[in-house]
Amino acid sequence: MNYDDTPAELLAPELESDAELAFEGALRPASLSEFVGQVKVRGQLQLLLTAATMQGRTPDHILFAGPPGLGKTTLAMIVAQEGNRPLRMASGPAIQHAGDLAAVLSSLVPGEVLFIDEIHRMARSAEEMLYLAMEDFRIDIMVGKGAGATSVPLELAPFTLVGATTRAGLLPNPLRDRFGFTARLEFYADDELEQVLTRAASLLGLDIDREALAEIAGRCRGTPRIANRLLRRVRDYALVYSDRSGPSGAGTADIHSVRAALELYDVDALGLDRLDRAVMQIILTRFNGGPVGLNTLAVSVGEESETIEAVVEPFLVRIGLLTRTPRGRVATPDAWQHFGMHPASAGTLLDDL
Ligand SMILES: Nc1ncnc2c1ncn2[C@@H]1O[C@H](COP(=O)(O)OP(=O)(O)OP(=O)(O)O)[C@@H](O)[C@H]1O
């Protein structure tokens, strides 16, 4: 199997372009009741928000942790919308100095929800400023330089911080501890993805049957963002190749058109992307199924070990192709089967040396 020809962006869980941002905006659920899956988190969030409303106070600070594309930004928007609160969006990598954060914090209005995406990538100095802001709604601003510098306290409007991270482990404990509620988002089950897709198809005016939706759900790596992206390609296919007899003229899609569209884009039956396949093939061929250490693996595929650990492995483990052992990563029998290979015997390996 050749893994070099899969369009990487189609199965990448990260947001790919401004066009996709606009597309996502149109499909984003606007309330907790429209938000599919993550049942436990939804219930916990509902309780937290209702209690805050009943007591007339700002909700506790919330941290959403989990792989990209599972709905962290969507939930942050819902937190604001459900409480009828204004929302300010910021991103960790853009906060390079404490001053960047001070400018945002000092301009918040009472009750505002401040969303910081990729909060683990914020500058250290800003992180420290955030501790006090979260706890006491206050920051200390340094005025002047050198020996004459003094710190001036500044009261902030009460706000709710919603942080999102794909790497909860990288957050320092003092920051993590200041969130009143941490929600870990899980990959979605196939039936939940079908619900996401049903809703998106109806918003797109695409006439598509259950079997076809199930086929897309099975290939989108448990991730709503990818589900919507694949649906978009299926919609194009239906538009061009079907007789457009659907109610909106957007075309009709069935299992055959879904398979044809996804085959055209090299999306395999398990939704493995180029990097997944590269990782698995290296474990299978070069390391005879493992165990192989994370860093060795990362160097072999030319990728950051952070990406392998946070994005690639969770999915491969979830679909049962990989296991993590104390000695390293090991391919499962299903992995050998999926790639149509067999472990080399010890003799063959020695011959190779
Ligand atoms: N539970 C859900 N129900 C319906 N649609 C969803 C759900 N979760 C996510 N989506 C869809 O997936 C898209 C991506 O979600 P979102 O931007 O919230 O992910 P994210 O976890 O914030 O990703 P990132 O880590 O890259 O910022 C959204 O446009 C939304 O339409």
Structural overview:
With 353 residues, this protein is α/β, with parallel strands linked by helices. It folds into three domains: 8-13 and 188-264, Helicase, Ruva Protein, domain 3 (Orthogonal Bundle); 38-184, P-loop containing nucleotide triphosphate hydrolases (Rossmann fold, 3-Layer(aba) Sandwich), CATH 3.40.50; 274-338, Arc Repressor Mutant, subunit A. It has helices at 8-11, 18-27, 39-55, 72-82, 98-106, 124-136, 173-177, 190-204, 210-217, 224-241, 255-264, 274-286, 294-301, 305-318, 333-338, 346-352; strands at residues 62-65, 87-91, 113-117, 138-143, 150-155, 160-165, 181-184, 207-208, 252-253, 322-325, 328-331. Residues 14-15, 24, 27-29, 35-37, 68-74, 117, 164, 166, 196, 224-225, 228 line the site of adenosine-5'-triphosphate.
Helix proportion range: 40-55%
Spell out which ligands are present: adenosine-5'-triphosphate
Uncertain ranges = 1-7, 347-353
Spatial sequence of strands, sheet with the most strands: 2-3-6-1-7
Task: Let me know the CATH homologous superfamily of the largest domain.
Answer: P-loop containing nucleotide triphosphate hydrolases
What is the molecular shape? globular
In total, the number of strands is 11
Mean pLDDT: 88
EC number: 3.6.4.-
GO molecular function: ATP binding; ATP hydrolysis activity; four-way junction DNA binding; four-way junction helicase activity
InterPro entries: AAA+_ATPase, AAA_lid_4, DNA_helicase_Holl-junc_RuvB, P-loop_NTPase, RuvB-like_N, RuvB_wg_C, WH-like_DNA-bd_sf, WH_DNA-bd_sf
Pfam families: AAA_lid_4, RuvB_N, WHD_RuvB
